[in-house]
Specification:
- The chain is mainly α.
- The two termini are about 30 Å apart.
- About 5% of the residues are buried.
């Protein structure tokens, strides 16, 4: 069977998907910035543990809210806040990878990674709906880390700020549930239509 010839205008419009490539390359550069930031913060934390006064000052400047009581040493709470900050960077980095790899695979071009041993499990069935749900879940994780950081350092915040952060987190959670539910309805409808 002879393949149907694609109209030149349709071919041109379809080729415009490659305009997204610079966006994904830009996100890769943003990923590099996050990797650099992670290592700088980890180095500072290790320096503070080893007794560097400059590293300790840097950490206390980052985790202490202006006007709040400032500890003189590296406390468990301070270490926890720095580590949560590092986890936050890792989760944002994971989000970037999902957007870069999943977005490129879904909207630009197939990567043909089926035989690659390191292919992410989720990439084998990625589409726009799956990507939306995965991104919403990742955003909830990042929001949870921010909320936990605020609760650990609660004495530095007023009640209105903590309530607002909790409300924002709940909105993210409800949005993710709504996206997943809508995706489920669409999948069920599609399966029902196929069976008839």
């Amino acid at each position: 069977m002879v393949p149907k010839r694609i109209h030149p205008l349709a071919n041109f419009i379809f080729a415009t998907r490659w305009l997204q490539l610079p966006l994904y390359l830009g996100l890769i550069l943003a990923q590099c910035v996050y990797v650099y930031h992670f290592w700088v913060e980890l180095t500072v934390l290790i320096g503070a543990v080893l007794g560097s006064p400059d590293s300790l000052k840097h950490i206390l400047d980052v985790v202490t809210i202006p006007g709040a009581a400032r500890p003189d040493t590296l406390t468990e709470t301070t270490i926890m806040l720095v580590v949560l900050g590092l986890i936050d960077v890792v989760m944002i980095s994971n989000l970037l990878i999902m957007v870069i790899v999943g977005g490129y695979e879904t909207f630009v071009s197939r990567m043909n990674l089926e035989s690659h041993p390191d292919q992410p499990e989720w990439l084998s069935h990625v589409n726009a709906s799956v990507l939306k749900v995965k991104l919403a879940t990742a955003i909830i994780g990042i929001s949870s880390i921010h909320l936990l950081k605020s609760f650990i350092n609660a004495q530095a915040y007023d009640a209105k700020t903590l309530i607002a952060q909790t409300a924002i987190h709940l909105v993210f959670l409800l949005s993710a549930i709504a996206i997943a539910y809508a995706d489920r309805i669409m999948a069920d409808t599609h399966a029902l239509n196929k069976s008839h």
